[in-house]
Amino acid sequence: MLVEPVLFLLVMLAGTAGELCMARAMRTVGEVKDFRPPALLGVAWRVVRVPWTWIGLALMTLAFFALLEVLSIENVSFVVPVTALSYVVGTLGGRIFLRERVSPARWAGVLLVCLGVALVVVGKR
Fold it and tell me: Which residues constitute the domain of residue 7?
């Protein structure tokens, strides 16, 4: 069935892309240092004026509804581990889109996640 792989890809790619867009938006807005209500309202106002916020929100919404659909088809014990591949996508996206430095230890962790997902997928058969 082709629907499942497409839904998994949507969950992983759209969700992670949404998170990357939100990170970019927050880097534009800057660090929140004052947590008094008027200051937080000012931050919220700046956040809603950044286009990356809305792109991220739309992508994360798409991922959420794809996740709901895939959960209606598959067992959660399969869905959750497989969607862990979003860590791979997130690490690559952070490196490429946000120009973050990724340490060798973090790459090793990503490799372990991939191996774990492979075990889950092989175990389903």
Answer: 3-124
Segments in 2-103 forming alpha helices (H): 3-9, 15-29, 37-48, 51-73, 76-83, 86-96
| Cα-to-chain-centroid distance, residue 25 | 14
Domain count, the chain: 1
pLDDT digits (tens, 9 = 90+) for 21-32: 999 999 999 999
Question: Can you give the pTM of this predicted structure?
Answer: 0.86
pLDDT tens-digit series, residues 71-93: 999 999 899 988 999 999 999 99
End-to-end alpha carbon distance in the chain:
15
